[in-house]
Amino acid sequence: MLEYKNEIKRRRTFAIISHPDAGKTTLTEKLLLFGGAINLAGSVKGRKTEKHAVSDWMEIEKKRGISVTSSVMQFNYKDYCINILDTPGHQDFSEDTYRTLMAADSAVMVIDASKGVENQTIKLFKVCVMRNIPIFTFINKLDREAKDTFELLDEIESVLGIRTCPINWPIGSGKNFKGIYNRNSKRITRFYAANNGQKALESVEVELGDAQVDTLIGKDNHDILSEEIELLDGASSDFDLDLVLNGELTPVFFGSALTNFGVETFLKNFLSMTTSPLPRESSEGKIDPINNEFSAFVFKIQANMNKAHRDRIAFIRLCSGKFTAGMEVNHVQGNKKIRLAQPQQLMAQERKIVEEAYAGDIIGVFDPGIFSIGDTLCMPDQKFTYAGIPTFSPEHFAKVRQVDTMKRKQFLKGISQIAQEGAIQIFQEYNTGMEEIIVGVVGVLQFDVLKYRLEYEYGVEVLLDMLPYEYIRWVENKNIDVNTLSVSSDTKKVKDLKGNPLLLFVHRWSIQTALDRNKDLKLSEFGR
Ligand code: G4P
């Protein structure tokens, strides 16, 4: 095992999360540039098309193409081997986005300095908190007018409920953006805008308090900076690596991804503050990544990447040991020994066959239709399971009807398979058969994907009637007769694919009504 100890030790596997447009793609691209994985800015493509996408199939197709090729990007930087997990964040926002966070060891949260904490960031952040993974904050676009820095930090603390510890501090913003003050080294890195603020790669370092600083950033800026730093030193949380690793404190960095300013400083600090893959909880206790042989779990399934073959690819996150192409493994949930076929890894835009991979890595393997999300793979003589991946609450619901009722069988097959992949969730009302199927999704674009796929992959045309429900709660109580629950008139009682009971609500307050009226009722935001 020692032979691959170093390989595992140098792995860093993280996801970048943000609200659309905050600069996730730009930051990813700059990180890849540092690693030499790409040699031209603008290579992480599909940005424009992705963003202005209308919900027609061509766009969905393109998007899926994009999200497939950029699912994981691996590159080396200094002695580290870095895996960046892409979290689809635009209109195709889906459960996959959440699940990806299950495979990451830490998260980088990109925030637009002029906007602060936005909607989608809040949702993604909640999932990170659920897993207690370290969260690092990169406040981006300082080359544009930004909100007051203290205000931004307050917002992160109050809206997201995590303590902040700025590692560096911006000097001005927009036209007056002069650079960044590093609190640790007490040095200033000067930002020089050139080419209309598009390029600024020059930086100079000077001690704060030095007479030169007035010349460097202007007396006013120097005064403001001194005041702010004094205030900050008195008020902000001290850096505490344990709190960071526990997800209770987020180190904050400032910069401008577009102009590549502050990005490498961020990367270096981030790498030194994060750890290689840590032991994961399993049915047989914690599994240490280094002292155990191969084990992994499935966190994402992508179907029909090649239409001619109806193929599916299961993305697995290696949790311990080493994977070698052709090795036999135990698929625990399927209770079967299998050989993982066509293992592939995604390097920036390229897909390549992998010969070996280590704990921390993500690989895609051919799925003949046997895997489900959350399944565990381990050595043939072992059979432990990793904790399953929770079902995340859908936020949009629709009733699905077939146009041609003769195609019942294909319809059920299609919708069940798509649900099994985890692209949608399906629910049934009590006392009705499968005639009435309610579909729940995290992002509305999933409805279009469903409609298209049913039609073109299964030959079934469907109509979707939007439903007004926005909140969903699983009933935690065992053996409860859901029909006896007293709920408000806007609440619907349904069950999921596994027969678990749950409630759909139009208004948030109806959740409280249900809890008030039914004394022992226990509700959960996540399914099992
Ligand atoms: P996303 O993946 O989080 O959705 O954001 P993305 O990186 O695509 O960035 C969104 C827009 O913000 C892009 O502009 C990008 O160039 C710009 N941007 C990113 N980082 C910075 C920054 O540090 N400063 C400034 N001023 N802009 C930044 P766009 O015009 O929408 O797209 P494009 O034409 O640049 O591709």
UniProtKB/TrEMBL annotation:
Presence of keyword Lipid biosynthesis: no
Keyword Nucleotide-binding: yes
Segments forming domain Tr-type G: 9-278
CDD domains associated with the record: RF3
Domain of life (superkingdom): Bacteria
Main location: cytoplasm
InterPro entries, alphabetized: EF-G-like_DII (IPR053905), EFG_III/V (IPR035647), G_TR_CS (IPR031157), P-loop_NTPase (IPR027417), PrfC (IPR004548), RF3_C (IPR032090), RF3_dom_3_sf (IPR038467), RF3_GTP-bd (IPR041732)
GO CC, alphabetical: cytosol
GO biological process: regulation of translational termination
Listed GO MF terms: GTP binding; GTPase activity; translation release factor activity, codon nonspecific; translation release factor activity, codon specific
Family annotation (Pfam families): EF-G_D2, GTP_EFTU, RF3_C
Keywords of the record: Cytoplasm, GTP-binding, Nucleotide-binding, Protein biosynthesis
Transmembrane segments: none
Protein's cellular compartments: Cytoplasm
List of residues binding GTP: 18-25, 86-90, 140-143
Its biological purpose: Increases the formation of ribosomal termination complexes and stimulates activities of RF-1 and RF-2. It binds guanine nucleotides and has strong preference for UGA stop codons. It may interact directly with the ribosome. The stimulation of RF-1 and RF-2 is significantly reduced by GTP and GDP, but not by GMP.
Family stated for the protein in its record: Belongs to the TRAFAC class translation factor GTPase superfamily. Classic translation factor GTPase family. PrfC subfamily.
PANTHER family: PEPTIDE CHAIN RELEASE FACTOR RF3
Protein name according to UniProt: Peptide chain release factor 3
